[in-house]
What does this fold into?
Amino acid sequence: MQDLLNHPAVQAGFAPFLIALIISELFLRIRLSGLAIIAGFAATVYLVSDFGIEPLTATRKIIWLGIGSAALGLAFGSSISNWRSWLLIALSAAAANWTLWRILEQQELNMMLQWGAACGAYVAILVWGMDKLLEKETLRVSCAATALGIGTGGAALIGASALLGQFGLAVGSAAAAPLIIKFISNQPLPTGRMFTLPIALIAGLTGCVAVLSATVPWYALAILAGIPITAWLMPLPKHPIRIQILLLTFVTFVFVASAIYVTWRVAGDVPL
Amino acid sequence: MLKSLFALGIALPLTAFAADSYTVDSTHTYPHFSISHLGFSTMQGRFDDTSGKITLDRAAKSGSVEITIKTASVSTGFAKRDDHLKSPDFFNAAEFPSITYKSTAMRFKGDIPSSVDGNLTLSGVTKPVTLTIDAFNCGTHPMNKKEVCGAAASTQIKRSDFGVKYGLPGVGDDVKLVFEIEAVKN
It folds into this structure.
């Protein structure tokens, strides 16, 4: 059993997917199935890392900000309001700079400002993009979340570290669970900010740490930023939900494959 | 009484000055580490950029050691693995650019230092670590005629104690550290 739990595919793929599937189903009636993302992510953290605080590294900040964002998303609900969106955008940009502070403070002022602004903007774009998707069909949210997680995780795994890769893949796998339920039941599933905020924040912060601490190129993140925007803009003809999911998955995974490809071109194969 | 105090007043500064100070010669100082790779082989690695200061008072049998290692200078002979070692999975060089060792006490056998107690800070975690001095020699450098001391010190740590847990238990927890040091008298 321990060997199974030590396997990276179980830690960042099967375990968060299974936990998210259970949470989605259990909490569906009380409309809290969006907590599936953070539950799946927490399962991976438990298996590959810990919930410690000292020393407060960037990866630990990602864990605690992810958990905090789920609580904030729960408090903010799903209602569309401009002030909520702008507040979340401002908070996420600040969270990005706090997470990266230890790395940024070692740079020259020029670089520090550039990277701080770029990472703040990247995380803010993801938070804004995922928040904007709440105005549309929920399957757009789930498809974008799955692609964003897997794209971030794949790029981080190749170009940065296994831990960051597993963080991204965990939220991607967790986001895939409600998508599967939608696909099988042919019914939409409620998501809300408790779903969109953690995925955007965890994927955004993981991507930024992967760029600043390793060899993931910045333009891989620029490609990934296109996922929520594309999911929002893409016209969906009145097909059955299953066909719509397949269409959205195909289009968003073009971005995933592109981000992983450009990272692989820079970083090369994963050493075993 | 006054005479004694006067004598002590002169003697104390003299004792303080008796300690020789040395600067670590970065071009002849390489901390090495070795670690089990999946139980098949023992991987060797080293750090290419090390600096520090050493003080030594062999008469008073005391001394101090301060070593700073640039984390990003890790080298195992394979660039892709070095990148992984610098990542947050292992040394997290972007957040923790230095590994430091600061002594708290030095023990002697005769007038030769035999071990050093101190604190090792790795990945933001500080733990007490005792270095055993396996070889020690001082003398005049044949070319530049400066006084040089050299030493080989070793210890074993558990990387999990410093929060470096990636790849456990496949990649070993026990890490052997060997410091080959040369220091030039100031």
About this structure: DSSP finds two helices and eleven strands in chain B. The radius of gyration of chain B is 19 Å. Residues 36 and 42 of chain B are 4 Å apart (CA to CA).
